[in-house]
Design a protein that fits this description.
The complex is a heterodimer. By secondary structure, chain A is of the alpha+beta class. Chain A contains 17 helices and ten strands. In chain A, strands 1, 2, 3, 6, 7, 8, 9 and 10 form an eight-stranded mixed β-sheet that branches. In chain A, strands 4-5 form a two-stranded antiparallel ribbon. The chains are: A alpha+beta, B mainly alpha. At the A-B interface, helix 3 and helix 16 of A face helix 5 and helix 12 of B.
Chain lengths: 437, 290
């Protein structure tokens, strides 16, 4: 009897210790993402990861960007950051500087075959130097700037569609021909083009002319002559040729609705707007995308594309670095279903990006491979610490450089005055983030 | 039944705790934070009065302070005049009067975002009802009410007044119904006109209500945020931003908690000074039925 009791006790102990061991091996990763629209698909992706990694469980929280950043900031303040989270190009420098993100360069070097990815896009996740420093996040998708154009309007005006040989003069002439105003006392019924001070409307033109808005190390506003030429070109489109609406006249509307509602024949914005145009326009007209025309002052070797990534980062405080990295690799790699990418957002993993499922050549615009060409060229952006403040973004979209350029479109100031204000106010912001040594 | 010395304290302890932890504590913390550089995710750094120095040297801050004062002045006067007008209008015994009272009160309980979106549509220069009707009537060069920096603040004030007049109507109505009917009857016998009754009976006897509404409206005006966010986001280029909006932007968009705290204390001082003046001046103009 006594012997049986000992055996039962020993067996129980063995089972208990094995269970405890198994429990100890089970790791839970917390993952925060900013796109609730894709929550369900992301959940499927996670289930796939968990099936391959039975010892890792992922708890996902999806918040829209308005709530995502304040929540994440509060968690960072409390030292409670999730293990893995979405990271924006606009914030990565500040977060890396403040030691909140894990330096993942050694993991990237160790595990990734860089030829499989749009490697140029990785640059925006480096800190402090975008060319040479280590990575603090890694892209899962990226977007580039393209010229949207309304094929029906071009056909009605008897114009050739935009092509890679287009000059700014060609663009301007087309925009003039596409502007229709039957009553001189009223605004044009149809504008040839639409732009205002927004980063994705302005920077593509500056870079297409070989210009710079920031200095070489991106610590101060230093708008050069080529950038100034681009800004003057845009200003003239509105104020001299009347082919683009003044910013004040689009109050009460969403800027992204002008093109799909056929109020403007051309528009430069990020490629993720492809999804929006499809949704709003449906099949009401035929449209396409083209490269932003090269500027008159662009010199050979100066070609820079404007694109930027959506990334994922790992918290510096994570206790599960290996597991978090395994999950991140899964998020950015071949396993990710193409449906989890909003049309126009390019998968960082090339095989998916070049797949028929992503290119969707049976749907408008039908030439999405054009976006992929951008990712193979070097990048230039204005993202740095304080970017949202000096550039004017999201809730402050009417302020900063945005606001100054909007005032140009309203005819309230010249490009020279705008540049003076942008430089003075922008550098006041940047001096806080990049103090003089 | 006798209460000991402890019992009253037991009853007010929850209130005191709430006050200390949820009011006074955060106020003290914000005051201390106003002397720091603090972006939320890093520990705050003591920088003395730098935030206040930066604030008073900032052209944007002075512009926003001016916007705030203009907004407050127009809002307070607007809701008081409109609220009183509506209250007088609905202070009668017509059969359907409760329907009209409800109707005028409706904007108060309507979702702010819905109001912002609908008014933006009405005023939109390209598709809006108002500019298009005006254009059809032959009016040209119609300004952009929300997109032009000269009109954006004024337009916002109008929408805020439209939304909140019903609230102040209710308060004025309560005040009006406290005025004894006999006063009006006596005045009528003496041959007073309607205007004279309003001027010499209604307004003096409403002065305590007016005083209360003035304070409430002033506080509301200094907290203006939601419609601004929904309609203009403070733009163009901060032309329609007020201090509370600018404080939010610095705290929760730029994560400059120290700077935003300094701003909120400037706002606190402004509210304090105006309220003090109002209370001091009260004895010179507030009358009661007694």
């Amino acid at each position: 009897m006594k012997r049986n009791l000992v055996i039962v006790l020993l067996a129980t102990l063995l089972v208990a210790s094995l269970s405890a061991f198994a429990m100890a091996e089970q790791i839970t990763l917390r993952y925060f993402m900013w796109d609730p629209e894709f929550q369900q698909m992301e959940a499927e992706l996670i289930r796939g990861f968990e099936a391959e990694n039975p010892n890792i469980k992922v708890e996902m929280t999806a918040l829209d960007p308005t709530n995502f950043w304040p929540r994440l900031a509060a968690m960072a303040a409390a030292g409670e950051l999730p293990d893995v989270f979405s990271m924006s190009t606009g914030y990565i420098d500040t977060w890396a500087r403040d030691g909140l993100l894990l330096n993942i360069q050694h993991l990237v070097d160790r595990d990734l075959n860089l030829d499989d990815y749009f490697y140029n896009v990785f640059a925006e996740d480096r800190f402090p130097n975008k060319d040479t420093s280590d990575m603090y996040a890694i892209p899962y998708a990226w977007v580039g700037s393209v010229l949207f154009y309304n094929k029906d309007m071009f056909d009605a005006a008897g114009l050739e569609y935009p092509n890679d040989d287009w000059t700014w003069d060609d663009f301007q002439n087309a925009a003039i021909a596409l502007t229709i105003q039957s009553n001189p006392n009223r605004a044009p019924e149809q504008y040839g083009f639409w732009w205002y001070g927004r980063y994705s409307h302005v920077e593509p033109w500056v870079y297409a002319n070989g210009g710079r808005i920031l200095n070489e190390n991106k610590t101060r506003i230093a708008i050069d002559d080529k950038a100034k030429e681009a800004l003057q070109f845009l200003s003239d489109l509105t104020n001299v040729h009347g082919v683009s609406m003044a910013h004040r006249d689009m109050a009460g509307m969403r800027q992204q609705d002008l093109f799909p509602l056929q109020q403007a024949a051309m528009w430069v914005d990020g490629s993720w707007m492809i999804d929006h145009v499809r949704t709003v326009a449906g099949d009401s007209f035929r449209w396409g995308i083209a490269h932003v025309p090269k500027g008159p002052s662009l010199e050979p070797g100066e070609e820079r594309s404007y694109y930027w990534p959506d990334s994922v980062g790992i918290a510096a405080t994570t206790k599960h670095e290996d597991e978090a990295w395994a999950f991140v690799k899964y998020l950015i790699g071949a396993n990710r279903p193409v449906e989890t990418y909003m049309p126009g957002k390019v998968p960082i993993y090339k095989d998916i990006a070049y797949s028929e499922e992503w290119l969707q050549q049976d749907q408008q615009p039908g030439n999405m491979e054009l976006i992929l060409e951008l990712g193979e060229t070097p990048v230039r952006t204005t993202f740095n610490m304080g970017w949202s403040e000096w550039r004017g973004y999201a809730s402050t979209g009417g302020a900063g450089m945005n606001g100054e350029l909007d005032a140009v479109t309203n005819g309230q100031q010249t490009v020279e005055q705008a540049i003076e204000n942008i430089t003075r106010d922008g550098n006041a912001v940047l001096e806080r983030y990049y103090p003089e040594p | 039944m006798r209460y000991g010395k402890v019992a009253p304290w037991l009853f007010i302890t929850p209130t005191i705790l709430g006050l200390v932890f949820f009011r006074i504590g955060p106020i003290i913390a914000a005051f201390l934070a106003s002397f720091t550089s603090w972006n939320v995710f890093s520990p705050p750094q003591w920088i003395g009065t730098s935030n206040y120095v930066e604030l008073f040297n900032s052209g944007t801050f002075w512009m926003i302070l001016r916007n705030t004062l203009v907004f407050s002045l127009m809002y307070v006067m607007g809701v008081m005049v409109c609220g009183l007008f509506l209250a007088i209008l609905v202070n009668n015994r017509l059969r359907a009067i409760t329907f009209f009272r409800g109707l005028y009160y409706l904007p108060v309980i309507t979702s702010t975002v819905a109001i912002g979106v609908v008014w933006s549509w009405i005023l939109s220069p390209r598709f809006g009802v108002l500019p298009n009707v005006l254009a059809d009537l032959g009016v040209h060069n119609i300004p952009s009410f929300l997109g032009d920096s000269r009109y954006a603040l004024l337009t916002l004030v109008m929408v805020y007044i439209w939304k909140m007049s019903g609230y102040h109507m209710i308060l004025f109505l309560a005040g009006l119904q406290n005025i004894p009917e006999e006063y009006y009857e006596a005045a009528k016998i003496d041959g007073a006109t309607r205007w004279q009754s309003l001027r010499h009976i209604t307004l003096p006897l409403l002065s305590s209500t007016t005083f209360f509404i003035g304070i409430i409206a002033l506080i509301q005006s200094l907290q203006s945020f939601d419609i601004t966010m929904a309609m203009t986001e403070g733009g163009p280029n901060y032309a329609s931003a007020t201090l509370s909006f600018f404080t939010y932007i610095n705290a929760f968009v730029h994560f400059r908690m120290g700077y935003a705290s300094a701003m909120s204390f400037v706002l606190l001082i402004i509210v304090g000074v105006i309220t003090f003046i109002n209370f001091y001046a009260r004895k010179y103009w507030v009358e009661t039925v007694d």
